Structures are given as C-alpha cells and as structure tokens.
C-alpha cells in the first residue's frame, strides 16, 4: 500500500522500498514534462518517441560493431549518427535533450532517451504506460545509421532488419502504432507537419484503418522519396510507402487488420514491443525497474477506428482473408486535419 512508500530526498515524490535509485527520474520527469513536452502530445513528444526507436534499432545480433542498441549513441555520437538521411533533421531536437544529461549526472544517455520516449508518449491520450528500466551504460561506439529502416523499404526488408535486431514481424506491426501520433516533417519538403493519420495527437486505431484506405493522391508535391498515395490527401494526410507495404503484405496484413478495432491489443502490443526495443543491445540483468515513475496517459474513450467522413468499407484495400471488422462512420464532410503541434 501507499504507506510502505518512502519519500525521495528533498522531494515530494515517493518510491517503493529498494527503489531509491529511481528518485532522480521523478525530478527528471517533471522537468521534461514542464519544459520539453509542456505536458502535451505534440512535436517534442513525437520526436522523443522517434528517437527512442532510432537509438535502439542501431543494433545487429550478427555484428556487434555496428552499434550497441539502446545506448544513447544517437546523443553521444550525434555528430556521426545525424550525418545520414533518417537522422538528418534530428539535431535541433537532440540539442534540446543534451542539457538534461548535464543537469542529471546520474542519468545515462541511453536511459534519458528511452525515458523521454516513455514520458513523451504518456501525454498522448490512449497510449499505454510503458515499462522503464534504468541503468544503461553510456555508448562507447556509434551506431550504424544504415540499420534504421527506410520509408521506401518493402515489408520483407523491414522484417529482416527487425529479425536481425532480435524483434519479430509481429513486434514491428505493434511498434507501428507509434505512427498514430506521427507527422512527416521532411518527407515532402513543402509540408512541415503532414500527419500520418487523422488524429496525430491521439494514440488511437485510426492509423491502422486509414493506411488501409485506397490511395487517391498526395497532400503536397509528388514523387517524394518514401511517399505513396494517401487515402485522405485533401485532408492533408501523408502516407509512407513503408506503412502501406506493411498493411498490405501477406506476412503482416492480418496482424495489421486485427488492430483496426482493438485498442487494448494496440496498447498492449506496443507496450510489449517497446519493452523489447528499449533494451536492445543491453544486459537486462544489470538494469533496475523504475516503471513507477511513468505516468498513465489520458484516457481515450474510443476503442475502435471509425470511417472518416465519406469513406466506407468499399474504400478499404482488404489485405487479409479474415472478415473485416464492422466499424462506425464519422458524420459530416471531409475537413482538413487540425494542426496541433
Ligand atoms: C520500421 C519502419 C519505420 C519507418 C520506415 C519509419 C519511417 C518514418 C518516417 C519517414 C517518418 C517521417 C519523418 C519526417 O518526415 O520527419 C517517421 C516519423 C515517425 N516515426 Fe517512424 N518509421 C518506422 C518505424 C517507427 C517506429 C518503430 C517508431 C517508434 C516506436 C517510429 C516513430 C515515429 C514517430 C513518433 C514519428 C513522428 C515524428 C515527428 O512527428 O516528428 N517509427 N517514421
Ligand atoms: Ca544506439
Ligand atoms: Ca492517431
């Protein structure tokens, strides 16, 4: 019970007996929430989630010299890791994270990155409360940024890359739930905040439905690398080729379709896959559990996707032989997706 909790030194926060090492993370959490995220499922939350992936996936079971996974290398060796494409635009965000390393000397770069990802997404309604393990040693080598999947990859290529890192195809589909809160800021150079689903501030199932809608056009300019026709271009939604491929490939389509109407499965699947991602390349026996520091995300009422205005089952590229779920339809006219950074 609550009475067995102990007070952290010089603080209003309480920790479980034996978890005093977690105290520093309460202070860090409040600082990140007040200053980096402003308690909002906005751009910095999105970037923190993305960076937690790009740091961790720099790991290959078959060749340890290509990176030590979730080790903070993307911060420590940012000069090297941000030289190439997928990370080219991350320096302004990484520069906002770096001061927390100096301010919280007991927190390693790998811990800071996975912690920021977990705290960041806790601002997004409907997100799961992620596990957070602490104690990752600081990176000693940089990761190989070519290990990061490309938006032009086939499903097979992405699955092979995940397998090489120690993750499964199912983990990959579960991890894609992150794109329910995502913008493409750099895919189309004329669009700074092109959402990947109609609700980029909510961790909801719309993403899994909307990626399955038949592509009809692009929201901005054509022929951008890694972009394909979106089902909702007039509303400003952008579709990545990689997302489209995963939704339609026989290896992943049924898992994908199952997440259209099951918010619990989406949450639990993301939580479990993130627990694996967050410790890639790390020795779990050396880590300690500070999950209590992570707050619950705001509640989301919806538990299934609904057809955007004007869309019906006839617009779905059905890609799995199982029956497609019955979904509600949103009323009204198609309107531009609200921009809330
Ligand atoms: C595995 C295949 C994946 C590919 C090819 C991919 C690719 C991309 C691309 C191209 C963008 C747009 C970036 C921009 O234009 O600024 C993006 C955004 C994003 N990705 Fe992924 N991604 C993948 C998986 C993941 C995973 C596993 C996560 C996290 C668990 C993740 C989290 C995000 C987030 C949160 C954003 C939004 C960033 C923002 O709004 O600033 N992605 N992804
Ligand atoms: Ca790394
Ligand atoms: Ca969403």
TrEMBL record:
One BP term from GO: cellular response to oxidative stress
Domain Plant heme peroxidase family profile, chain residue ranges per copy: 107-324
Coiled-coil regions listed in the entry: none
Amino acids binding heme b: 179
Cofactor: heme b; Ca(2+)
Keywords: Calcium, Disulfide bond, Glycoprotein, Heme, Iron, Metal-binding, Oxidoreductase, Peroxidase, Signal
Alphabetical list of SUPFAM superfamilies matching this protein: Heme-dependent peroxidases
Cofactor note: Binds 1 heme b (iron(II)-protoporphyrin IX) group per subunit. Binds 2 calcium ions per subunit.
Binding-site residues for Ca(2+) 1, renumbered to this chain: 55, 69, 71, 73
Site residues (Transition state stabilizer), renumbered to this chain: 50
Enzyme Commission code: 1.11.1.-
Positions of the catalytic residues: 54 (proton acceptor)
Highest taxon, organism lineage: Eukaryota
Binding site for Ca(2+) 2: 180, 197, 199, 204
Keyword DNA damage annotated: no
GO MF annotation: an example: heme binding
Cysteine disulfide partners in this protein: 8-23, 22-290, 41-124, 254-320
Record keyword NAD present: no
Family: Belongs to the peroxidase family. Ligninase subfamily.
Protein name (database record): Peroxidase
């Amino acid at each position: 019970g609550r009475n067995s909790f102990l007070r952290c030194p010089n603080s209003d926060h309480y920790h479980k007996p034996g978890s005093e090492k977690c105290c520093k993370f309460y202070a860090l959490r409040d600082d990140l929430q007040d200053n980096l995220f402003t308690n909002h499922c906005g751009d910095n939350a999105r970037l923190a989630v993305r960076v937690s992936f790009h740091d961790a996936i720099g790991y290959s079971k078959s060749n340890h010299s290509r990176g030590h996974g979730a080790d903070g290398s993307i911060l420590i060796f940012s000069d090297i890791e941000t030289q190439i494409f997928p990370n080219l635009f991350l320096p302004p965000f990484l520069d906002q994270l770096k001061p927390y390393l100096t301010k919280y000397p007991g927190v390693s770069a790998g811990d800071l990155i996975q912690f920021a990802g977990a705290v960041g997404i806790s601002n997004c309604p409907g997100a799961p409360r992620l596990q957070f393990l602490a104690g990752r040693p600081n990176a000693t080598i940089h990761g190989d940024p070519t290990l990061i999947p490309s938006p032009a990859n086939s499903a097979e290529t992405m699955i092979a890359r995940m397998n090489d890192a120690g993750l499964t195809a199912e983990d990959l589909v579960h991890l894609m739930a992150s794109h329910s809160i995502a913008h493409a800021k750099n895919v189309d150079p004329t669009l700074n905040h092109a959402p990947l689903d109609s609700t980029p501030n909510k961790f909801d199932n719309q993403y899994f439905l909307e990626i399955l809608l038949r592509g009809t056009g692009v929201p901005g300019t054509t022929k951008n690398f890694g972009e394909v026709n979106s089902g909702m271009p007039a509303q400003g939604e952008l579709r990545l080729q990689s997302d489209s491929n995963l939704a339609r490939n026989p290896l992943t389509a049924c898992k994908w379709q199952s997440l259209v109407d099951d918010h619990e499965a989406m949450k639990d699947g993301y939580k479990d896959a993130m627990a694996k991602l967050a410790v890639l390349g790390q020795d779990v026996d050396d880590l300690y559990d500070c999950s209590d520091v992570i707050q619950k995300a705001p509640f989301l009422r919806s538990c299934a996707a609904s057809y955007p205005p004007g869309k019906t089952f006839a617009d779905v590229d059905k890609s799995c032989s199982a029956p497609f779920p019955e979904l509600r339809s949103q009323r009204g006219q198609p309107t531009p997706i609200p921009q809330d950074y």
